[in-house]
């Protein structure tokens, strides 16, 4: 993966969280995800397609997600609520959209509608031919991780869609 794709996600999450939530994000050292590493309890997933393809996952500890969603919505929501799921989806959408805008080929990259998984013990697996970089983040609300599993599209056809991710529950 091109390391230049990591910095836009770091800048975007800091911007989105400070602007929308008035919440500071401290970013740790990015690392490659091994196949066996678990995902946190709540994951918002969005696919990218075009000149870059793959998936972005914003994964939260349950308590962190609940606190962040409460800041975002102005009210504490139950994780089983459709509004809770929508809020997590919108957060991954804003972070991914903000990062995409900073890509050199940002206009040639599309993002999908988000999917959200809530539940302990799930994993999000990406294409085996696409490395996944974990960007650990901490906030006053708890921990979260941005999982960036994207690569340049070698077919150069922006009409193809990203292959997406599979989920094991």
Structure characterization notes:
The structure is a single chain. The chain is an alpha+beta fold and 169 residues long. The chain has one domain: CheC-like (Chemotaxis protein chec). The chain has three helices and ten strands, in the order H-E-E-E-E-H-H-E-E-E-E-E-E. Helix 1 packs across helix 3. About 4% of the residues have low confidence.
Key features of this structure:
single chain, 169 residues, alpha+beta, Chemotaxis protein chec, two-stranded antiparallel ribbon, 28% helix
Condensed summary:
The chain is 28% helix and 31% strand. It is α+β, with helices and mostly antiparallel strands.
Alpha plus pi helix count = 3
Query: What is the molecular shape?
Result: globular
Average pLDDT, to the nearest integer? 88
Order of helices and strands: HEEEEHHEEEEEE
In angstroms, what is the radius of gyration? 15 Å
CATH superfamily membership, which one? CheC-like
Assess the beta-strand content as a share of residues.
25-35%
Count of the domains: 1
Stretches where pLDDT is under 50 for at least 5 consecutive residues are 157-163
Helix content: 25-40%
Amino- and carboxy-terminal Cα gap = 27 Å
CATH class assignment: Alpha Beta
Q: How is the CATH topology named?
A: Chemotaxis protein chec
> What's the main sheet like?
8 strands, antiparallel
Q: What is the architecture at the second tier of CATH? A: 3-Layer(aba) Sandwich
Structural class: alpha+beta
- Total number of β-strand segments? 10
């Amino acid at each position: 993966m091109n390391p230049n794709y990591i910095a836009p996600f770091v800048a975007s999450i800091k911007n989105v969280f400070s602007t929308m939530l008035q919440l500071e994000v401290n970013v740790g050292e990015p690392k490659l995800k091994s196949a066996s590493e678990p995902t946190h309890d709540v994951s918002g997933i969005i696919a990218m397609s075009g000149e870059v393809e793959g998936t972005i996952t914003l994964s939260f500890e349950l308590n962190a997600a609940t606190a962040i969603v409460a800041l975002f919505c102005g009210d504490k929501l139950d994780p089983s609520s459709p509004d809770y799921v929508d809020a997590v989806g919108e957060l991954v959408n804003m972070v991914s959209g903000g990062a995409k805008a900073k890509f050199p080929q940002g206009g040639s990259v599309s993002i999908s509608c988000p999917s959200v998984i809530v539940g302990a013990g799930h994993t999000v697996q990406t294409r085996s031919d696409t490395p996944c970089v974990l960007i650990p983040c901490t906030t006053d609300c708890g921990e979260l991780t941005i999982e960036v599993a994207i690569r340049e599209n070698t077919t150069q056809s922006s009409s193809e869609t990203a292959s997406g991710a599979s989920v094991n529950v």
